[in-house]
Amino acid sequence: SNRAAWHLWALTEPSPRGRMTRWHQVTTRFPADKLAHAALADNATSVASAENDPVALKLALGTYEMLLADATTDQERVALTSSLGTMRKWKF
Predict the structure, then answer these.
(1) Per-residue pLDDT at 58
(2) DSSP conformation letters of 29-59
(3) Which helix (H) or strand (E) holds 87?
(4) Model pLDDT, residue 55
(5) Would you say 33 and 63 are in contact if contact means Cβ atoms under 8 Å apart?
(6) Per 3-state DSSP, what percentage of the chain is helix, strand, and coil (rounded to 5)?
(7) Of 12, 18, 35, 77, whose Cβ has the fewest other Cβ atoms within 10 Å?
(8) pLDDT digits (tens, 9 = 90+) for 20-58
């Protein structure tokens, strides 16, 4: 039940794909944890980019879209919209 411990657990995974998997587990356990969702999106983006992985890209896009739907400030919306625009142009 300790969210901070789960964050540390995810952060200590040495492989990018493993971190992505761990962050996915954290977001499943704590669905309202926006920081965990942001970390999941970031790690999935890294895996997608480094490995040309369309599944990781789909996970990243879906997570960014969820964060955009829940954004509460213009700055958040601009940053997320920009990221989504860039990533939607990627072709593998």
Answers:
(1) 97
(2) H-TT-HHHHHHHHHHHHHHHHHHT-HHHHHH
(3) helix 74-88
(4) 97
(5) no
(6) 80, 0, 20
(7) 12
(8) 999 999 999 999 999 999 999 999 999 999 999 999 999
